[in-house]
Structure formats: structure tokens, C-alpha cells
Specification:
globular, five-stranded mixed sheet, 16% strand, 43% helix, Cytidine Deaminase, domain 2
């Protein structure tokens, strides 16, 4: 399906504008860049909260400051990587950062590479987020209806729509950053033109 048609369908599904979905896609691509800061091996998750004042509070899954960066251990029975119980989720990290800096998150929007985990869900409810937008589906999702019951709109924008160039070199971090830079420059140019037009009128 062409991306334009997919964006149109998502806008109708979530009752938002197509421009909002396009903006959501930009923010989700940013989440994947934040995720690279994570020291996790099994799954790198990048998240941030966009406050209603327009402040971005980033976070990624990892350990508490000053502690070991080891996020997983090898299960002796299965040989699989298992996350330690003390790992802090990306959204939790962002919320802690906001608390330290006195940034209110009420009515903000959460963005994440992955759907909220069982820890992130209650955290999102506690700070009264109004939306949560994610790209990949986490294996545990039975808590998502509870978030919706508490007034949080859950929006899933699939990976192939966020990264239509999947499988090509364009999906590498340098090119994602270049794409984001070009997009932001275009957005700021449009805003500047509107402001200039308003000042002249």
C-alpha cells in the first residue's frame, strides 16, 4: 500500500489529521535514534514524551545512573538473554528526568519504538499522558486496554510506514538523521513564512 494511502487510513482510524500522522512518523524515527543509546542487547527501546508546551523529554531502556550497564543475563537452562528485574524502561527514564527538572507531563504524548511494556503502561497513566504512539508491537499487550480505559489514546503506526525504505541503506542512522534534519528544516521554514506573513498583514 502506498504510504500516502496508509497515512490517510491511520488518520481516519485514530480521528486525527494526516499532518498529525506525518508528524508522528517523524517523532517515531527519532525514537529509533534515541534507542541506540541503550546498552541492552535483546531489545533497544527509545522513547520520549512530548509535553503540551512542546518540550521533548527523551529516555531509553537501561540501568540506573552509576550502576553497571549490563542489562541482561544468559538463562542457564535456555541459553536465552533475559533482562534483569532492575532494568528501567525508556518511558520511566523520561519520567524520572522530567521529575528531576520540574517538567510537567500532564496531557503530553508518549512516543516509542515499541508498544508500552507492563511497567510503562502504569507510568503513562500516572503522569496523565493523553496519547501514546508506537511502532513495533511488544510481546505483552494485555495492559493496553487499561491505558485506553484511563483516557490514553493508543496509536500504532507500523514499522513499514515509519520506514518505507526498509531493507535499503536509507534505513541507516546517518540517513535517518539526514532525513529528520531536512524535514525539520522544511517545517521551520513553513512556520517562519507563516509568521512573516502574519507580521506583514
Amino acid at each position: 500500500m502506498p504510504q500516502a494511502e496508509a497515512i490517510k487510513q491511520l488518520a481516519q482510524k485514530y480521528n486525527v489529521s494526516e499532518k498529525q500522522i506525518q508528524t508522528d512518523i517523524i517523532y517515531l524515527r527519532m525514537c529509533f535514534i534515541f534507542a541506540e543509546q541503550s546498552k541492552a542487547k535483546r531489545l533497544k527501546v527509545g522513547e520520549f514524551v512530548l509535553t503540551k508546551q512542546g518540550i521533548i523529554v527523551p529516555g531509553y531502556n537501561g540501568t540506573a545512573p552509576g550502576t553497571s550497564n549490563e542489562c541482561e543475563y544468559v538463562d542457564p537452562n535456555t541459553g536465552n538473554l533475559v533482562s534483569y528485574n532492575h532494568i528501567i524502561c525508556g518511558l520511566q527514564n523520561g519520567i524520572y528526568k522530567a521529575a528531576r527538572e520540574g517538567i510537567p507531563l500532564v496531557d503530553g504524548t508518549g512516543y516509542s519504538t515499541d508498544s508500552p511494556c507492563p511497567r510503562c503502561g502504569p507510568a503513562a497513566i500516572s503522569v496523565n499522558l493523553k496519547r501514546f504512539v508506537y511502532c513495533r508491537q511488544y510481546r505483552i499487550i494485555d495492559h493496553l486496554p487499561i491505558m485506553e480505559e484511563q483516557g490514553i489514546q493508543i496509536c500504532h503506526i507500523p514499522y513499514e510506514i515509519v520506514f518505507p525504505e526498509k531493507g535499503s541503506q536509507e534505513c541507516s542512522t546517518p540517513n535517518i538523521k539526514k532525513s529528520l534534519r531536512q524535514t525539520w528544516q522544511s517545517m521551520w521554514k513553513q512556520k517562519s513564512m507563516k509568521l512573516l506573513k502574519k507580521m506583514r498583514s
